[in-house]
Amino acid sequence: MKLIILFIFIGSSFAYRNDLSVHSLALGSQSTLYWRVDPTKEIIQFEIHYTGEESGWFAVGFSNRGELTPADYCVLWIDWHLKVHFQDAWANNKGIIEVDSYQDCNDFAWKRSILSNMTKFSFTRKLDTCDERDYIIERGTTHIVWSKGTGPLSNLNGLNIITNAISSGMSRTELLRTVSHKRPEFPSDTWKYQLLADHVNVPQVETTYWCRVEKLPEALRQKHHVLQFGPVIQPGNEHLVHHMEVFHCAGASEANIPLYNGPCDAADRPQATQICKKVLAAWAMGADAFVYPKEAGLSVGGKSFNQYIMLEVHYNNPERIKNKVDSSGIEFYFTKTLRKYDAGVIELGLEYTDKMAIPPHQELFELSGHCVTECTGIGLPQNGIYVFGSQLHTHLTGTTVRTRHIRNGNELSPLNYDNHYSTHFQEIRLLPEPVHILPGDSLITTCTYNTMERNNVTLGGFAISDEMCVNYIHYYPNTRLEVCKSAISDDALRTYFRYMREWENQDTDFDTAVSKSYQNIEWTKLRVAALHDLYQAAPLGMQCNGSDGSRLPGLWNNVAATQVKLPLAPPARDCHLINQ
Ligand SMILES: *[C@@H]1O[C@H](CO)[C@@H](O)[C@H](O)[C@H]1NC(C)=O
Ligand SMILES: *[C@@H]1O[C@H](CO)[C@@H](O)[C@H](O)[C@H]1NC(C)=O
Ligand SMILES: *[C@@H]1O[C@H](CO)[C@@H](O)[C@H](O)[C@H]1NC(C)=O
């Protein structure tokens, strides 16, 4: 790491005392991307290291959802006089490269080590270059695409990023990480605990979920705070460990859970371990450690806390590399010197129910879950809560997630959003700064789904083929509200199914079967539009529940959805006319 950092920032104009600001991501097994965000200049410094022959070309860039084409690239290539070039270009649908008229891959530097057979290069890129051919780097998930091949080339125009490549790929990361929270001081009694996979022979298949159930150390009979958790990746396996979660086996405090170490879906996995599903920590490839703000820690341990936890590691092995043994996992920092507040989690979004559905063959269909004024009004403390982290969650067809924040009808800055969301890149993200939510505020979580590949309706529910729309917000001080989610009200859906039956001749009936009714509808454009309008206008059934699982007092059926009187204007772009 040290060498790299030296190289990257030779000649750079801003000081770098804090190593935490340099992030890295494996691009396949032979290349690594390093980067650092400069929020004031709104640029990112990138650096790539790859092994390969000297005259080869290397393209790195961005695309909407990870497709290699069409995509925006910065390309290093070498001509037959061994002169090095670096150009901003665009690959069309077929993969054919065309150099951009505006060149926005700047500050290029290059170095080659014959000894290690490695090329290193660095460049900077503005977040928004104002060139319509360039990708706009936004908050949330960014899909980094890369491709490399042999040279020399005579010209970059005409190169085919797919057919001329010897290897290529895609990695997801949260590129725009601002480290505005400085890591707070940790008390001297802070200790580390690692929950690691134990010499797992990574199978030669694309996807493996590995589970390990362990008992927490005895010290956690006493309540502790988690101050930080983060990845411990076995060196050399950076490209294999895709994401990891640690779950609490939230059963009775004295219940013994059988220890387990094997594939999560194995037939012999003890049934009792299925209880291990309350998320304590979540990390995904490309993410850094999660550091709690100085005011709060995550409470673990104590008399009423079951002592078992489970690590789940998702191995992603598309190159089907063999003989890889892995002992990666998650590392926690614990202290018994408790901070002022316990951190808490509230679930926002849609209730897990088949009352919500997404018709098939939709490129973009929206569902929204509301956390209404009435619920935050009684569920949050008078001084409100501070939300510092957020984990967005949908299943396979989710493509964007956003939580809007409304106060007295006025829309404030969004609580969190991801316009390039992927179910395969879920982590608990620190918000750029904590968001203050007051009692009476409402939060609308909207997800969009793409069901172009599906022939049947997609229903809300728990199965991976069902859909969800959830934002788990992490906040302090911990309060009793834990679930603030909605679905269409029973009455509204009953009326809609009756209308579909009587006027549209569809086989629908709310009282016999909701799922079946949705499945029985023959989806036409008009019926899809009608369903969309119904979801926009219909009253809600609210789930406004406390942490003990009970409903907070109130009338939660047929609640009106939040009205946004003054929506937020889209963010302004700082673009001069010349580049447009
Ligand atoms: C450099 O790396 C490439 C790709 O891994 C390999 O094909 C080539 O033989 C290597 N060259 C040397 C001199 O090691
Ligand atoms: C999809 O719809 C077809 C036709 O209605 C049905 O036969 C099939 O079982 C459905 N598939 C699923 C996964 O529900
Ligand atoms: C909320 O509480 C009600 C009543 O206890 C329960 O039926 C419902 O399942 C709870 N919802 C959630 C999401 O926990």
Automatic annotation (TrEMBL):
<feature type="signal peptide">
    <location>
        <begin position="1"/>
        <end position="15"/>
    </location>
</feature>
<keyword id="KW-1133">Transmembrane helix</keyword>
<dbReference type="GO" id="GO:0005507">
    <property type="term" value="F:copper ion binding"/>
</dbReference>
<keyword id="KW-0472">Membrane</keyword>
<dbReference type="GO" id="GO:0004500">
    <property type="term" value="F:dopamine beta-monooxygenase activity"/>
</dbReference>
<dbReference type="InterPro" id="IPR024548">
    <property type="entry name" value="Cu2_monoox_C"/>
</dbReference>
<keyword id="KW-0479">Metal-binding</keyword>
<dbReference type="GO" id="GO:0042421">
    <property type="term" value="P:norepinephrine biosynthetic process"/>
</dbReference>
<dbReference type="InterPro" id="IPR045266">
    <property type="entry name" value="DOH_DOMON"/>
</dbReference>
<keyword id="KW-0560">Oxidoreductase</keyword>
<comment type="function">
    <text>Catalyzes the hydroxylation of dopamine to noradrenaline (also known as norepinephrine), and is thus vital for regulation of these neurotransmitters.</text>
</comment>
<comment type="similarity">
    <text>Belongs to the copper type II ascorbate-dependent monooxygenase family.</text>
</comment>
<dbReference type="Pfam" id="PF03351">
    <property type="entry name" value="DOMON"/>
</dbReference>
<keyword id="KW-0812">Transmembrane</keyword>
<dbReference type="Pfam" id="PF01082">
    <property type="entry name" value="Cu2_monooxygen"/>
</dbReference>
<dbReference type="InterPro" id="IPR036939">
    <property type="entry name" value="Cu2_ascorb_mOase_N_sf"/>
</dbReference>
<comment type="subunit">
    <text>Homotetramer; composed of two disulfide-linked dimers.</text>
</comment>
<dbReference type="InterPro" id="IPR028460">
    <property type="entry name" value="Tbh/DBH"/>
</dbReference>
<dbReference type="InterPro" id="IPR005018">
    <property type="entry name" value="DOMON_domain"/>
</dbReference>
<dbReference type="GO" id="GO:0042420">
    <property type="term" value="P:dopamine catabolic process"/>
</dbReference>
<keyword id="KW-1015">Disulfide bond</keyword>
<dbReference type="InterPro" id="IPR020611">
    <property type="entry name" value="Cu2_ascorb_mOase_CS-1"/>
</dbReference>
<dbReference type="InterPro" id="IPR000945">
    <property type="entry name" value="DBH-like"/>
</dbReference>
<comment type="pathway">
    <text>Catecholamine biosynthesis; (R)-noradrenaline biosynthesis; (R)-noradrenaline from dopamine: step 1/1.</text>
</comment>
<keyword id="KW-0968">Cytoplasmic vesicle</keyword>
<dbReference type="GO" id="GO:0006589">
    <property type="term" value="P:octopamine biosynthetic process"/>
</dbReference>
<keyword id="KW-0127">Catecholamine biosynthesis</keyword>
<dbReference type="Pfam" id="PF03712">
    <property type="entry name" value="Cu2_monoox_C"/>
</dbReference>
<keyword id="KW-0732">Signal</keyword>
<dbReference type="InterPro" id="IPR014784">
    <property type="entry name" value="Cu2_ascorb_mOase-like_C"/>
</dbReference>
<keyword id="KW-0325">Glycoprotein</keyword>
<dbReference type="GO" id="GO:0030667">
    <property type="term" value="C:secretory granule membrane"/>
</dbReference>
<feature type="domain" description="DOMON">
    <location>
        <begin position="29"/>
        <end position="149"/>
    </location>
</feature>
<keyword id="KW-0735">Signal-anchor</keyword>
<keyword id="KW-0186">Copper</keyword>
<dbReference type="InterPro" id="IPR008977">
    <property type="entry name" value="PHM/PNGase_F_dom_sf"/>
</dbReference>
<protein>
    <recommendedName>
        <fullName>Dopamine beta-hydroxylase</fullName>
        <ecNumber>1.14.17.1</ecNumber>
    </recommendedName>
</protein>
<dbReference type="GO" id="GO:0005615">
    <property type="term" value="C:extracellular space"/>
</dbReference>
<keyword id="KW-0503">Monooxygenase</keyword>
<dbReference type="InterPro" id="IPR000323">
    <property type="entry name" value="Cu2_ascorb_mOase_N"/>
</dbReference>
